[in-house]
Amino acid sequence: MIRFVQFDETYIPQMAELLAERHAEERKRFPFLPERFESPIAAAERLIEEAARPFAAGVVALRHDEVIGYMLYEFKQNAARGRYVSIGYPSLAVKKGEHPRLVRLLYAEAGAEWVRNGYFEHVLYVPVGNDAIILEWLEQSFRFDQRYAVLSLEDHESLGDASQSVEFQKIEGDPAILQKMAHWNSLHQATAPAWKPITKENLDEERKSYAELAENQGIQLWIAEQNGIPAAFHFYKPQKANTMVASDNAAYLVSASTNMELRGRGIGKAIADHCFLEMRKLGYQYILTDWHTPNHLSSYFWPKLGFQSYMIRMVRTVDSRISWAHGNQ
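^ thats the sequence. predicted structure below, dont judge the formating
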């Protein structure tokens, strides 16, 4: 008999055993993941951080007082999504040998509260090592939204087709240059088949965030020029410490884009080769990045360069009419 209880810190040791077990399985498929989280001690520390978030809660599945699964979640709100609930990468695990359908039961148990309180947007970050778990989420009407991937710089080989007319420049202390190019990605994603609406407010916010990031320590920005015209850029920041998805000597490729008028000339590959070499010289071992799954260019380009997906953001939007159209009138 399975019963569900609200999360309590007393369950963390058993939850950590499940997370460490899950991580060990993930590392069989993705050995670049940090080994230390195979330890229940490190896994417990990570869960404590997740549970300490300002609006975090959770549900735990028990069988005879043994934890067989858990789901932590956080209530959030922003201008892009409105009110939503987020389930982070470490925030869900099921005991090995349990039926993957347990994730549906955890979701139903917790989700009833979310919907009752007007949280109709549900977002989760799923490790890609367990295909059965991903299928369960797909069958719960979740959809793929964003891919997260890693590239080992030791394994990367130049594509060897760089345009000879491209010049590269490292930019330091001049966020205005980045602001001028920040909209390239957004404009592309508004086209087919992504069809992601881009408002003036979105563009203004994107330029502002890029400018703020560009002033942070450790930021790396390269620009490719062709005949004096900005042709492409790569924008990196150091990866946060204590992540479960890459070693500490990793950098995040925040954004990269090629001038839409200059695409198809090998410029994107050329700047990628240049920047990966430079980042390796700086001591980085891995590059992380992400892309919107309906963006067909990114979905093809980054894996071709050697990026391997380790996590997927999945999203479900519940029809808000359920708040009144539930057959009880």
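The CA atoms of residues 114 and 120 lie 7 Å apart.
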